[in-house]
Amino acid sequence: MPHTANQPPRPISPTSGRPDRLSVDPEALFVYGSLQFPEVLFALIDRVPDHRLATAEGWRVAALPNEVYPGLVPGETIACGYLLTGLAPEEWRLLDAFENPLYELKRVELTDGAHGWAYACTPEEVEPHDWSAEDFEAQHLPAYIERCTAWRRRYEAREQVS
């Protein structure tokens, strides 16, 4: 998984997830954006689940307007990422709540014949250029980790009230 560099935090927009999309019982999560970074996973679920490199042909990791994280859309390229396995149900719920409402949980066929679930969006919602994990890491990762940590505190406080 990618490693971080020490960069000063930069402001980024807040997340606005919704905890109601898990109508399926997903067994593996294909991550292609910010969830590729161990530090982000630690901020959200306190661990890095079992994972392996994975690719999905016919998908593109596209930049999103006014966001530092990407969207997965159908495309004529190969999306690279990781397949996370062994997520506990409470981790799935937390990650699902964290994800932006523009995403839809979709089953994605991987190039090795396996499959995973991924948070994808429609092509109309993305920029024409691809997202760069390297640029994200260099320019946004420290602030994004802070944002994830703050989001988790709010999420856990809401869960305790419920």
Automatic annotation (TrEMBL):
Keywords: Transferase. It holds the Pfam family GGACT. It comes from the Bacteria. Residues 1-21 are annotated as: Disordered. SUPFAM superfamilies: Gamma-glutamyl cyclotransferase-like. Residues 29-132 form the Gamma-glutamylcyclotransferase AIG2-like domain. InterPro entries: AIG2-like (IPR045038), AIG2-like_dom (IPR009288), GGCT-like (IPR013024), GGCT-like_sf (IPR036568). PANTHER family: AIG2-LIKE PROTEIN D (PTHR31544). This is Putative gamma-glutamylcyclotransferase. It comes from Actinomadura vinacea.
